[in-house]
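Form 12-C: Joint structure prediction
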Amino acid sequence: MISVTDLERTYRRPRTSLTGPRPEVHALRGVSFDIEKGQRFGIVGESGSGKSTLVRLLAALDRPTSGSISLQGRRIDNLPERRLGFLRSQVQIVFQDPMGSLDPRMRVRDIISEPLGRQPGRRERVRELLDAVGLPADSGERYPHQFSGGQRQRISLARALAPRPSILLADEAVSALDVLVRKQILDLIAELVERYELTLVFVSHDLGVVRRVCDTVAVMRAGEIVELGAVDEVYDDPRHPYTRELIAAAPNLAAALAGLEEE
Amino acid sequence: MTRNLSLLAGVVLVGLVVGTALVSFVWTPHDPLLVDASVRLLGPTGDFVFGTDKLGRDVASQLMVGARTTLYVGVVAVGIAALVGTPLGILAGMGARWLGELIMRVNDLVLAFPALLLAIMLGAVYGASTLTAMIAIGVATVPSFARIARAGTLQVMSTEYVLAARAGGRSRWWIALRHVLPNISGLVLVQSSVSFAIAVLAEAALSFLGFGTAPPTPSWGRMLQESQELLAVDPRLALVPGAAIALAVLGFNLLGDGLRDRFDPRLEVRR
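Section 2 - Result
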C-alpha cells in the first residue's frame, strides 16, 4: 500500500557565518520500508530521530531530498499540490499537541468538517463522527478550549476520519496525555482502525505505547531504521543495542497503569 | 487588574472623543465659525466654557467640531493602512520566500520615509487638504500593518492546525481566510488603535504646519497654530486644544495596550 525507498531529507540551517556554507541537518538518511494494507505500523525513536519528518513526507506535506514514496503504486513525492487530491482524502494525520492542532477560533463542527470543504451533508457527517469518537452530540457548537486534552485528541481523530481515509498517520498522538487518558485514546484508535479497516502508521518515542496498538515496528535512530520486525519479536528479542537501550529506558505503560490501579 | 484598568481608561477617553464628535453633529453651544468682535479673547465664562479666540469664536464649539476632523482623519488613514497592509503582510507570510522578502524590503523603504515629509510633498503637489493628509498618513502607516500581519501569519502557518488543513486538502485561500485572518485579527485591532493615536498626532502636526485641514473647518492642530501668536497673552488658547490632542492620543494608546493584553496569542491558553 505504501512503499518507501531510499528516502532522504536534508534540511538547511540558516547561515552561521557570512562566507561559509549553510550547515545541513540530515533528518532522514536512506529509509526504506513497505506497509501492507491493514497493517498497523509503528515507528519508534527518540526525539530528533527523523520520525516526524517521515510522517510529514508520507502525508506529502513536505518533499524528500531524494528517494521515493509510492501510494498504491503511484509516486507521490514529486507531484504538485493540485495533483495530490487523491491522497488528501486517503491519508489523514493526528498530531501530538492537543491544543496546537485545533484552531482556537473555530467551532468544533467546523474543525471536524474542514477536510470535507463545502461538501453537502457535512453536518450529518460531523454528528456521526462525534458519536464514533465518543464525544457528546452538542460538542460541535463549542470551541476547542472548552475541552480537555483527551477530548481534543478525539476531535482531532474525528477530523482525520471525516474524509473516510484508508490510511491514518498518528504523530505522537498520545504523548501529551496523562497515563489513564492515554490508554483510553489508544484503545479508541485501535477500535477505529478495526472498525474502518484503516492502515495505521503510529509514531511514538514510547515502545510500550507502540506495542499496544501496532503489529509491526520500525526502530529509528539518527535518520535511519536500525531494526524492523513484528512488534512482539522486537520487544522480546531486540537485535540492535539501541533497541535494547530504548526498551530498558522507556517507562512501561502497563506498569504505570498497574501502579495507578493499585492506588 | 492593571490590564483591565488601562483598557477601561482607554475606552473612557476614546468614548469621550467619539461622543463629543457625535454630539457636535446635532448640538454645539455656539456656531463654531461665528465671528463676533464684541466677545474677542474672553476667558472661560458660563456662556463660553473655554472662552473665545481672537475672532470671538467659541473655543468649546470649535473643539467639538474639531473632534470630528480628528476622528475622520484617523478612521480613513488607519482604514487605508489596515486594508492595504494586512493583505500584504499575509501575502508576505504565506507566499514564496522571494515574494515575502520583496514585500518586506519595499516595506522597509516606506517605513524609512517620514510620514510628515510625505504629507508635505503630497500637499505641495495636490494642494493641502484633509484628504491629502489622510492619504499620506495612511500610506506611511501601511508598513506597520504589513509587519505585524506577516509576523502573525508566520506564526499561524507554523501551527499543526494549518498542517492538518493542508493534509485535508484545503487551498491557500481557505487557510488564509479561515485560519490566518481570524487568528491575526486581534493583532491587527491592537495595531489599529496604536496607529490611530499616531494618526491623530500627525493630523494635528500637519494642520499646525498648514498642510492639513484648511480653514475654516475647525481642527485641533489649526487651533494650536492660531493660538501661537497669542501664547504669551493667553496660553489658554493653546492649552485647550493641546490637552484635547494629548487626551485623545493617550486614550487610543491605552486602548491599544489594553487590547494587546487581551489578544496576545501567548496569553490565549490561559483564557
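Section 3 - Comments
Residues 267-271 of chain B have pLDDT under 50 and may be disordered. The domain at 2-270 of chain B is CATH 1.10.3720.10 (MetI-like fold).
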